[in-house]
Amino acid sequence: MTKRVIPVVDLSQFTEGDAAARKAFVAELGKAFHEIGFVGVTNHGIPKSLIDNFYEASHQFFALETAVKEKYEIPGMAGQRGYTSFGKEHAKQSKVADLKEFFQLGQEVADGHPEKAAYPDNVHVEEVPEFTNLGISLYRAFEKAGGALLRAIAIHLDLGENYFDDKIEEGNSILRAIHYPPITQEPASAIRAEQHEDINLITLLVGASAGGLQLLNKEGEWLPITPGENEIVINVGDMLQRLTNNYLKSTTHRVVNPPREEWHLPRLSIPFFLHPKSDMDLSCLDRCVTADNPLQYEPITAGEYLDERLREIGLKK
Q: Might you name a Gene Ontology BP term for this protein (predicted)?
């Protein structure tokens, strides 16, 4: 039995509980973020069947021939829709590409919507017709769970429960299916995903098909993250760190290569990067700037910050 590294909270305590249960949930969530930066969440409302079906469709997509997958790689899109081939993305401090390929789905709005130009259509895969539609359904379920978590975070920050609601409604979130293929030769120096922090407000991750995810704790130790059955894993991203002037810290994490005897096993994981609308102001909250914690960041919008980071990780030229 692997020892649990991250605490676990029950989201239904917040979404369906009485005032005392909600208060306890907010306290537990805040404590987890301050102490270790990651938390497992049960009773999150995302149907297991939907997760399983999207995993299966993702397996089918990544099993396609490379030339077929590359039809879905859209030039000039910085990977924000469709396929990104193996070896394109690297951590911002690294020059070595991660050992992965991925497919991204984003926000959808109706034709004629004022933000339509900001949200390109999602890419549909002829060979696996259910893949994109399942992904969009999973995206909506993640938006709902993420919205509830951000309401708890807003209470923790004393901002009022609904602080984030209008900022994330029709926000620029991304659902990413990541495939780490079998490792066929000794990697020069690359690991499946080099240490990094996420760009967004919070990340919601449904269980990966194999281990390897690790977080860096405050003592500088790398610890394995092994979620339980039907649990999603949540971590703070850089946008929330900026907004709170480092009061809530973005946690460094990575995906290490498996032991050599498991090199033949691929790994699939499905993170949901919860982003606000691009015009959200990420200027540090006044309440988070104090004599002990002076202002750490220049004002920036979420869209400007995303653009800067996509260039740093090699997706945008």
A: ethylene biosynthetic process
Tell me whether strands 82-84 and 253-255 are parallel, antiparallel or unpaired.
Answer: unpaired
Q: Is 157 helix (H, G, I), strand (E, B) or coil?
A: coil
Q: Which two tokens stand for residue 174?
A: 């991304």
Q: What are residue 292's DSSP bridge partners? A: none
Token reading at 203: 């990340």
CATH homologous superfamily of 8-312 equals B-lactam Antibiotic, Isopenicillin N Synthase; Chain (2.60.120.330)
Instruction: Determine contact, residues 24/11, Cβ cutoff 8 Å.
Output: no
| Cα–Cα distance list, 21 to 142, 199, 231, 307 (Å) | 22, 31, 20, 39
pLDDT score of 191: 67
Query: How far is residue 89 CA from its own chain's centroid?
Result: 15
Residue 104 phi/psi, 5° resolution?
-120, 140
Cβ atoms of 172 and 106 within 8 Å: the answer is yes
Q: What is the largest CA-CA distance in the chain?
A: 58
The structural domains of the chain, with segments of one domain joined by +, span 8-312
Q: Please name the helix (run of DSSP H) or strand (run of DSSP E) that holds residue 138, with its range, or none.
A: helix 130-156
Crossing angle of helices 130-156 and 48-62, rounded to 10° = 130
0.85 exceeded by pTM? yes
HSE-CB at 213 with a 13 A cutoff on CA atoms is 23
At 288 the three-state DSSP class reads helix
Show the low-confidence residues of the chain (pLDDT under 50). 1
| 82-119 confidence digits (pLDDT tens) | 999 987 878 787 777 778 899 999 999 999 998 888 89
Unique residue bearing structure tokens 């004599």: 291
What is the per-residue pLDDT across 284-306, written as a single tens digit (0 to 9) for each?
A: 999 999 999 999 999 999 999 99
To the nearest 10 degrees (0 to 180), the angle between helices 19-35 and 130-156 is 100
CA distance 200 to 238: 6
3-class state of residue 50 by DSSP? helix
